[in-house]
Amino acid sequence: MYKQAYYDEDFLINYKTGNDYYLDDACDDYPDYIKRDKLKLPDVRSVDVSRHFTRLSEMNYSVDLGMYPLGSCTMKYNPKYSDYIASMEDFNKHPLENEENIQGNLEIMYNLQEYLKTISGMDYSSLQPSAGAHGEFAGILIIRKYFEMKNELGKRNEIIIPDSAHGTNPASASMGGFTVIEIPSNSDGLVDINALKATVSEHTAAFMITNPNTLGIFDDNIKEISEIIHKNGSLLYYDGANLNAILGITTPGKMGFDIVHFNLHKTFATPHGGGGPGSGPVAVKSFLKEFLPVPIVTEDNNKYKLFYNLKNSIGKISSYYGSFLILLRAYSYIMKNGNNLRKNTERAVLNANYMSNGLSEYYKIPYKKLKKHEFVLSTENTGKKALDISKFILDYGIHSPTTYFPLIVKEAMMVEPTESVTKKDIDYYINVMVKALKADNETLKKSPVNTSITRIDELKAARDLILKW
Ligand SMILES: Cc1ncc(COP(=O)(O)O)c(C=O)c1O
User: Fold this and answer.
1) pLDDT one-digit tens code per residue, 128-163
2) Residues 175, 129 contacting (CB under 8 angstroms)
3) Domain limits at 296?
4) How many domains are there within the chain?
5) This prediction's pTM
6) Half-sphere exposure of residue 55, counting CA atoms within 13 Å on the CB side?
């Protein structure tokens, strides 16, 4: 067997002397039908291999190829220094490695927990969850456990969510066993306070929102909302997906939130990870510490420890200690930026407003209030479909905005340029978006024509799945 041969001294000697021990002898135990006489490797030059894979890599769009202004998703450029650090051998430890030998990794996790606490204005954090939505789910389980310990779970079985919320919010709440109650937004796109007051009851476990919301508008009534919720004995949950709009300026803690999840890929420029293995840490006010997912990292006299013994923890929700190499990238991003995190936010907000201003002459931009890091535009009344515009701009090397979300805006396109783009990028984007609006409908319907995959049948793609493993 291969394993035996590998540890066999003869094998090592033969290996060093160039005898073909492994192929001739180590495979003896394999059945004949899986053995091959000859290896049929293609005879190609390395330059051809390199060109082939480079070409393949460009068939798909990525943050390395151009701007990616997906509203609500905050697709920043992923800095190469973070990738470089994450590829260093010393950080790539086996997850079962003895704690003594991974003190450096644990120190980084501990420091990141501390930074996230400061950034969010919360008291404790856990790095366990593997995506934003997973962080939401962890937060919901914390809410559940909190009321369970107070013997109120049977009564507090509802979570209120505004109609502008991201779909993962109601999904997480309902997966956590709560009934979701949706309330409408007011004419400014903000939480309708009267609707909130009328909905809050003895059954309310929590109110779950993101601020600024998915329209990019900061809800100035957040203090009043916090008061209404807390007076009722309920909890206030912050969906941290839009943290890029407030970094270094204010915190969910100051706004009165009790629980926050972070989407490290959005705010701290790590790869998204497609719902995991990304990272979506969760942070809480001190009265909720005992419910955090474990392990958390503790420090005592410069010794770092994976701590599992939280009294009423919701338990373990990821393997080992979370997505360490993603955490490391976020940590390096925070270390590298330092006080400039606030500048990044200011720049992201400025970019979004410069872009929305440039487009406002051509597209409808609903809700008059000032936008923060993102904005929503609509093709309503232009005679064009948002989907067609989104497809047209692909031919110009631009990724589509988030299309048909949020649901409260007809023909919606949600744009978030982030701080990673330049004025030149934004001007180009505006020009292409205007060009799209001026194109005839026949051209729009056929778009895109220059991408590796052209217009797909979206309905068939969603309904007629061919799953492959
Ligand atoms: C407002 C909001 N909340 C939650 C999520 C879910 O985050 P993730 O994609 O990390 O699971 C998103 C993702 O786009 C979002 O925009």
Assistant:
1) 999 999 999 999 999 999 999 999 999 999 999 999
2) no
3) 93-337
4) 3
5) 0.88
6) 7
